[in-house]
Amino acid sequence: MTAGVVKRARLRQFLVLSPPLLWTVLFMFVPYAILVVYSFWRAQFPLAVPDFQFGNYIEIFTDPQYLNVLLRTAKIAGLVSLLSLLLAFPYAYFLVFKVRKPGLRLTLYMAVVAPLWVSYLLRAYTWKTILGTEGLLNSFLMSTGILSEPSSVFLYNQTAMIITLTYVFIPFMVMPIYAALEKIPPSLIEASGDLGEGALATLAKITIPLAMPGIVAGFTMTFCLSFGDFISPILVGGPDGLMIANVIAAQFGAALNWPLGSALALVMLVIVLGIITASDRFERLGQARLS
Amino acid sequence: MKLFDKLAGTTACAALMFSALPSFAEGELNILTWEGYADPSFIEPFEAATGCSVSATYVGSNDDFAPKLAAGGGVFDLVSPSIDSTAPLIAAGFVQPIDTARIDEWNSIYEKFRTSDGINQDGEVYGVPYAWGAIAFMYRADKFDTPPTTLDALWDPALEGRISLWDDKSALYVAARANGDMDIYNLTDEQIASAQEKLIAQRPLVRKYWSSAGELVDLYKSGEVWISNTWAGYQSALLAEEGIEVVEFIPEENAEGWMDSFMIVSGTPNEECAYQFLNMAVSEVGQCGVANVNGYSVANPEAARRCMSEEQFAALHQDDPEYLDSLLLWENLGDRLGDYTNAWNAVKAQ
Question: Is 80 exceeded by the pLDDT of residue A246?
Answer without folding.
Answer: yes
